[in-house]
Amino acid sequence: MTKTSIAALVTSFAMLGLLSGCGSDADVDVNIDGTMDIETEEGTAKIGAQSLPEGWPEDAPAYPGSTISYSASMNPQTGEPGMAVVLSTSDTVSAAATYYKTELASRGWSVDTAMEAGGTSIFSATKEGSVLSLLIAGAEGQTTITMAIENTAK
């Protein structure tokens, strides 16, 4: 198992913990294609998903040519509204970070904070009451992009 696969697996279990941590029952379906769907009243997670979460904003694009391995959304009626997705690509961390900084700015996002160290790029962007956080990390020729979006407008 690669470091990228381990990171996606850890993220998946963390989201499962968040979704089921509020005391509600979790409905977990393991599908024949190897994907897993988890649903609670707090939200849903799709592990091995091939699409962005329902309602994902068009101005926060998936990286071109990337593969989606995980997506999740939180229910705004019972928790903080938000969504997350994990993507993978064979492009470099630098290429993905440059793409997002340029593309997000062209779509009206303000890149607020950024940090790059040890082959990892972390930054956030804001737009109209939403915060988009990105963690882009590379290992073994694979780059993993973790994006989370939260609506902070109350």
Give unreliable regions as ranges. Answer: 1-23
Number of E-state strands = 9
Helical content class = 10-25%
**Computed structural class:** alpha+beta
Largest sheet: 9 strands, antiparallel
List the secondary-structure elements in sequence, H or E. Answer: HEEEEEHEEEE
Number of domains as seen in the coordinates: 1
Q: The CATH topology is what?
A: Protein Transport Mog1p, Chain A
CATH architecture: 3-Layer(aba) Sandwich
Q: What report would you give on this structure?
A:
21% of the residues lie in helices and 43% in strands. It is built from 2 helices and 9 strands, in the order αβββββαββββ. The longest helix is centred in the first third of the chain and has 18 residues, at 3-20. The N and C termini lie far apart (42 Å).
